[in-house]
Amino acid sequence: xxxxxxxxxxxxxxxxxxxxxxxxxxxxxxxxxxxxxxxxxxxxxxxxxxxxxxxxxxxxxxxxxxxxxxxxxxxxxxxxxxxxxxxxxxxxxxxxxxxxxxxxxxxxxxxxxxxxxxxxxxxxxxxxxxxxxxxxxxxxxxxxxxxxxxxxxxxxxxxxxxxxxxxxxxxx
Length: 172
Description:
Elements: H1 3-15, H2 22-49, H3 58-95, H4 101-114, H5 128-144
């Protein structure tokens, strides 16, 4: 390592996120797009759960079904458009090197989002490989002092140290 490279590395380490300017910007884009997807899913779930009552006529039921079908089609098109914009952001997060703990936290949060199925069951009910990935991601998020992307924002940003299987538990 040259002395200029050493100085640049030391300056980046001292300044926090100076060596990872692209990762926080990418995370901002990622959060915005995933929030749009979540909002769209929430609206779609609300519309899908609405059903016609038994006292409606067959024509009204058919019309309601047609409206739901059209809104499902529109929601699918909207979701596909969001996913098309999300894909390059995810690719950039994976490709960008993490040079700071903050940058590593961005990458860990993205990994948690992609592998979110590992948090659905209790940790004792997932296989060894899933447990390894889950615990590594939780440890990195804890070290970077960032919450998992699906944790309760009212909770602390760290997974509970006494129970690594509970990503939304408070460690207070």
